[in-house]
Amino acid sequence: MTSQLNYDISLQPDFSLLTVNLESGQQVFAEPSAMASMDPGIHLKAGFKGGIGKTLMRGLGGESLIINTFTAKDGPGEITFAPGPTGDMLHHHLEGQTLYLQRGSYVAHSEGVEIGGKWQGAKGFFSGEGLILLKASGNGDVFFNSYGAILSVDVTDDYIVDTGYVVAFEDTLQYHVTTLPGLRMAGKMKSFLFGGEGLVCRFQGQGKVWIQTRCANPFLRWIYAFRPARKNN
Amino acid sequence: MQYEIMTRPAAAVAKLSLTEGESVTCEVGAMIAMTTGLNVETTSRQRGGKGGMLKGLKRMFSGESFFLNHFTANAANQTLLIGPQQLGDIIHHELTGGTLVVQGSSWMASSNEIEIDTTWQGITSAVFSGEGIFWVKCSGTGDLFLNSFGAIYEVDVDGKYTVDTGHIVAFEDTLQFKIGKSNPSLIGSLLGGEGLVCKFEGQGKLYCQTHNLSAFGRILGPKLKPR
Predict the structure, then answer these.
(1) What is the domain-level CATH number for residue A40?
(2) With contacts defined as CB-CB under 8 Å, which chain B residues touch A219?
(3) Which residues of A touch B85 (CB under 8 A)?
């Protein structure tokens, strides 16, 4: 059985929809609630995948503990996935490599791919974006999404991304969380405290980084101001 | 400055290419990603020493931040990716000596040769419009990057033109304007839901946004839990 999915991503970058045409017996795995529509011949099985350890690590990664399995039991069938946030969705084919995904950006994967968690150690403590990255490895297809559009950047040497905007990156890249490069130490502190950019992720080496063009957090901070004030009875 | 505006209009970003020594001033928080040959400096003043505390404070009232970030390339071929916080479009406007008046929160970045100053639009607009009471005046020669909520459309005004104050992104100062009610009677104007409008006259370019961020907030806000 082939692990290569017959897929199409449409309506990019604002309202992306993933359509997968499954061959008879073929399976696709996805985060809960991502499924938008499907042929009745496709069977859904909700479940913990990859054992209790992997499941818990995924949970720490900010994804649901459960990954749903869709199987085309009664002949070939079509299934569509649309993740929660409005935004972009991309496909990446793995052939033995490893891909790290920011929490929340995982959508679906094909057979042959393993999804697990990865403890970032102290690096992630300061980023505010989740301590754990999801790790996708093996042979097959991975689909990930974000709020806003996704841009792919080929890093050849050194590249800086605001921690809140990292969607995914290849494990051939070294990374560490740091502040922006400034001229003087004092200037650096000022940029850190007042520059609004907070912490950045510095990637070194050769590989791809995917960047989202918007973050949901500024939207949340903005809408907070419009909440009604609590009445004192 | 070399630039490219991508993924328009809902999640637009601007990719700026800087040569060695070139620099750009950005709104705080606009940086998404960059190459490592860029130096970042946060100040309350414009490059070259103009401004300072007072201008910083004025910027705060205009909906912009007290601080500005200056990015300077210290090596060749540096790229900087910038975008606004909310969903929306970005446009580039080239200034050649004139002045562009930009709605408070729409200014995103400009080259260093451009002078940015905040202007107060008077008490009437402050009381009624609830938005755009401060406008940022950009003058000089160079590149200007503006952002909006929703998409941006351009109007070449020749004669008279009326825009809701919440939909203005920017306009050339060759245009005369008057802020007023959309209807001769105040009640009619309030019932019509249009609030205050800006009546332009003359010749010049006007940039409008398709959506109004405050209007969106007023729809969502009451549906949320009280804070």
Answers:
(1) 3.60.160.10
(2) 85-87
(3) 214-215, 218-219, 222
Nearest to B7 among A165, A187, A213 (CB): A213
Using a CB–CB cutoff of 8 Å, tell me whether A176 touches chain B: no
Give the count of beta carbons closer than 10 Å to the beta carbon of residue A67. Answer: 22
Quick check: is A114 in a domain? yes
User: In this structure, are residues A212 and A149 in contact, taking their beta carbons and an 8 Å threshold?
Assistant: yes
Whether a cis peptide bond, with omega within 30° of 0, leads into A32 is no
User: Is residue A1 in a domain?
Assistant: no
Of the candidates B6, B41, B85, which has its C-beta nearest A151's C-beta?
B6
CB-closest option in A149, A194, A196 to B11: A149
**Is residue A190 left, alpha or beta, with left meaning phi > 0 and alpha meaning psi from -120 to 50?**
alpha
* Cross-strand partners of B40: B71
Residue at A37 is within a domain: yes
When mean pLDDT is compared across A63-77, B35-49, B172-186, the lowest value belongs to: B35-49
What are the structural domain ranges in chain B? 2-223
Amino acid A183: pLDDT: 41
CA pair distance B4, B221, nearest whole angstrom:
35
The verdict on pTM exceeding 0.95 is no
Decide: A79 and A20 in contact? Cβ < 8 Å.
yes
Which residue segment(s) compose the domain that A167 sits in?
Answer: 6-221
Chain A residues whose CB is inside 8 A of the B86 CB are 214, 218-219, 222
Contact: A197, B69; criterion CB under 8 Å: yes
Task: Report the residue from B39, B85, B225 with minimal CB separation from A182.
Answer: B39
- Which tens digits make up the pLDDT trace of B121-143? 554 444 444 444 567 889 999 99
Of A141, A5, A16, residue with least CA distance to A81: A16
Query: Is A145 within a domain?
Result: yes
What is the architecture, at CATH level 2, of domain B2-223? 4-Layer Sandwich (3.60)
Comparing A161-165, B84-88, B179-183, the range with the smallest average pLDDT is B179-183
Q: How many domains does chain A have?
A: 1
pLDDT (tens digit per residue) in A168-192: 999 999 988 877 765 444 555 555 5
The one-letter amino acid at B57? L
ipTM: 0.83
CA atoms of B58 and B76, how far apart (whole Å): 35
Digit-coded pLDDT (tens) for A124-144: 444 444 446 788 999 999 999
How confident is the model over B57-95, as pLDDT tens digits? 666 655 556 678 889 999 999 999 999 999 999 999 999
Contacts of A218 in chain B (CB under 8 A): 29, 85-86
